[in-house]
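Re: that chain you flagged

S.,

Sorry for the slow reply, it's been a week of failed gels. I finally had a moment to sit down with the sequence you sent. For the record, here it is as I used it:
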Amino acid sequence: MIIERFKTIADRYDALFCDVWGVIHNGRRIYPGAAEALSTFRNNGGVVILLTNIPKPRGPIPEQLDRLGFPRNAYDVIVTSGDAIRSALGARAPGPMYKIGPARDAALWDGLGLKQAGMEHARFIGISGLNEDDETPEAYGEVLQAARARNLDMLCANPDIVVRVGDQLMWCAGAIARDYEKIGGRVVMAGKPHAPIYELAFRELMGLRGLVERSRVLCIGDGLGTDVAGRQ
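Prediction finished late last night. Pasting the structure tokens below so you have them in one place:
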């Protein structure tokens, strides 16, 4: 059965866990229909929690959505993979950590008390993404082999393999984590489809609405490996 309009089933649910990238925008522009549907759901008493695998805390995300033109009346709160992984990262302070990821993800590490080190002195790997947008996972082969030789855990802040930015595809941290697992490395992830991000979302929902039956919560997403698997 294909559901062509959310409004035809909206009254079955009290809350939505809605993916961000690919559902409400494509990295360059918003999808107006999604904004309208979510706003209408909230106006009718529903709760909308945006659930995203972005590898940073939620703090700057509303302003980023503002710049894209996504209205704040379309959601109640945002829960990110960065939020979900920070407790696991903080539990390993002071590290040291071998960091992989671009400068724009600096907020992920802020306030955790983690020191950084080269591979030879690191106790684990923390990854938020590839260091450069034009890199490919193959560029990290030697790094992963060195980490595996030292039996280091990898804490991955974004389980996504790839993301579409406008008409282009960009590799994400999940691609490196996937390759590390292939050579026997242990990977810890908290974002979709893993339980911690959903547990955090339900805590947020309880704070907004109180106890809500899980059968009354609808998950909306565009990824088989993250959103669909995550609802199980």
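What I noticed first: The chain is about 30% helix and 20% strand.

Talk soon,
D.
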